[in-house]
Amino acid sequence: MNPVRLAFTVLRADSRSRVSAVFVAIGVALGVVLVLWLLAAPDALRDRAERASWRGAGNAVDATDGRAAVVVAHNRDDLDGKLVERYDVAALKPGVPVTAGIPFVPGPGEVLLSPALARLDTGDRFSRKVIGTIGDEALKYPDELVAIIGHEPGTLYGCYRPDLLGPGEVDTGDGVFYLLTRVGLVVLVVPCLLLVASAARLTAARRERGLAALRMAGATPGQVLAMAATETAVAAVAGSALGVPASIPLRHLTARIPWDGGTWLPDDFTASPAVVVLVAVLAPVLVVAAAVLGLRRVVTQPLGAAQRHRIRGPSSWRLGLVVGAGVLFVIGVGRDGGKMTVLIGLAAVTAVLVLAGPLVLAVVGRFLIESWRKPSTLLAGRRLSDDPRAVFRGAAGIVLAVFTASMALVLFPSLDRRIAHSDGTWRDDVLVAESVGGGTAQIAALRAELDRRGVTGAVVPMVTGYATLTDYPRETGADVLIAPCREAAKVLAALSDGICEVAPMVYAPEWQVDRLKGGAKISLSTRDPAVSLAMPPNLPVRVYQASSGRSYVFIDPALIPGLTAAPTSVAVVTDAANRAAVQNVLLRSFPGAAVVGNRKIDLEGTARSEDLVRATVIGLAIAAALGAVGAAVGTAGSVIDRRRTFAALVAAGTPVRVLTRALHVEVGLPVLLVTVWAAVAGAAVGVGLTTITRGAEIVFMPWLAAPIALGLVVALAAAASCGPVLRRVTSVSYSDE
Amino acid sequence: MTQFDSHETHHPVLAGRGLVKRYGEACALDGVDITVRAGDVVAIVGPSGSGKSSLLHVLSGVLPADAGEVFLCGKPITTLRETERGLLRRSAFGFVFQSGLLVAELTAEENAALPLLLAGVARADALGAARDWLTRLGLEGLERRRSGELSGGQVQRVAVARALVHRPRVIFADEPTGALDTSTGQEVVTALLDAARQTGAAVVVVTHDQAVADRAQRIIALRDGRISSAVAA
Fold first, then answer.
1. Can you give A95-159 as a three-state secondary structure string?
2. What is the predicted pLDDT for the residue at A264?
């Protein structure tokens, strides 16, 4: 008989082969959906970046360049707890080229708002005539809050650009999102592959025997392989054909997941036709290739395939690798280790996690064999000890997901405080306009405007800069803030009124005191042109206790000879009632200046943290679902493979519940073990990475228990799948074949 | 031991009266009567589909009869619930199957000890009893081997040890030599019968193999679900 026809005959006649084929098809479909999704993610990111590319200053020109057509200042504003992308613009000539979605460059007194921002009550934030809306083509995401505010030429400090167009190509090949899609590709596709493998194994034992019998009956290797390939290909092609259309609804679902401030346009997550075709073809080809490779033994040794073969345990070189990686990692996180050492150690630890897992399982298995009291424990121990690699392989998807999630759930909260949120430099009730430019006249105007609005909080002009130490020119210098101590103490968290001396002084953290004795060269953060000043040596220095924020060196202006520079920053003390008004006044008084405050910094930080945690949870949830299904299918397969033995035990009077309990231990225990192993390893790597980040403190969140809970769920799902299959094993099934 | 214990020999230990078993329209047993005394060796023979395995399943309580009654030491078991019949099979009966059907992950001694372990007997006691039976069956030195490391005959002898380790009243053997060559089959049957004799257990063996049937004290031939002949060997 034609082997292909024979394969179809088997599928038609054998219900277990059909079940296996259905699971293979489901696994392939899920894999295709996820791969298409994850491969489309960078495209989505690129589409988003291209829509926003007009905002970049990559094509900036010099102010004197004849091509200069518009001045642009970008800042992040906040309105009612939402972040607003604010672009202050001043057209230098008519007909400035603009990107799609922007009708034109607004003139003085005019503003363009994105639709979502236009729907909000903006009060007098922009205080201009809204003359149009910004279309989706110029927005990162549909609900983005963007304002383009027109100004008189000459009143705005910003970069000079020939147009409001973006560059032709946008590079999105780095960044957190890109990294997450690549990690996700591995973390989610591996459980898919394991699901397919588990499904293919459902009837493996019987199929191996059947194919071996065919070989011994004279079938050529080619005929056997063709039959096996056809059987798998039918399911894999069906799965792939199912997966491509199934990815469309997922695309729309994905577009609703917020990232970096907002959701996506549905078309963002559309993979290119070439990628779709490639994935649709490659998925079944790989699955069939794996099935054919798995039959090597049947093809080369048909007699041996029907007999049980001894499985080699994990070799000792794994232990060497584990120890080596551990030592490297520990050295790396120690004081003398560099970041590169740690990263190499991290890579090594991650790589050997997979190699060391079976070793750990084998050791636990041997312990169980020595100490068992119940047959279930003995069976679990033997399963672990006999073929730890197979057990580990079965749970590899969940290992990967739990490892990554544990690492992320240690790393993100720990770095969160360091990177994302306000660093404690400014007092909470303070708003600071940075890079203000202008001079004392503008400060006076600001004070007058604030007085008019009844704002009584202090207004503190400051000059900031960077000091290069005269005696230590090659070492890190110091951030400098020039303002009278009593004034600065009103807005800076590190200073208090009580610390300020009557006489002009320098105030520095203890570790900076000796370094400042030789004097310094101070480069001021003024607008063009650059201004440098000399800080004389041996100035009187008083130590202050540095806060968690920037460790400024505070200098009284009286100590700097020739200081004539205009303030570079202006801080205003606000209260809850006048905060929004002060923010509006600052933005109008200093066009193009950035207005910052702890609340806005926290808002940005929280948004980023939420993105990362959301991505982790989504990835973990999908991996858990796939892992649970894969483990359940694998477990069902192992019960089906041994159904005659179980039936014999049932016939001999062993209650099904006793067998079920034994199987629960046999199945659940290894999954739990690998989960705990992966969680501990992931958390350890997370701690290591946190340690090398200066200033980051290790934070253990309750969420860290989530991966363990996930392993428990998968273990329970896998164990629970024994019951229904075992219940179908009747006491007379021992004679089935 | 159970309420069905009988210390008397040559009294009926197992009896079936008017046994009927149907699978849909097909009638596998059609009013079969059979009596097995303690220490008896009874062979059930017949062509495929004659009802041999169905009779073994009904007598052992693996399957309930549609009509008729099965008595163990004079007490009816047909009316028992599945859990009670399971307990009965575990304590009063032993089973030997065609290809051993050992648990591949376990060693010979662990397989032989399995009925005791599953019944809650302590590890040391269960393994001790299993080793004792393996020695009696000529498997000394092979206790730590897995089924994959044993020959077909050795596997069947481990299965015999597993069937006897809890000292059942009746051993049911379903084609115990079906997967073995003639001489190995004879060795296994000899081992089974010798061991059964030592414990006083009755043996009910379903077989196609005339050489095995010839070793029995009685041969019951089935055809179309009825006893066509019953002769003393």
1. CCCECCCCCCCCCCCEEEECHHHHCCCCCCCCCCEEEEECCHHHCCCCCCCEEEEECCCCCCCCE
2. 86
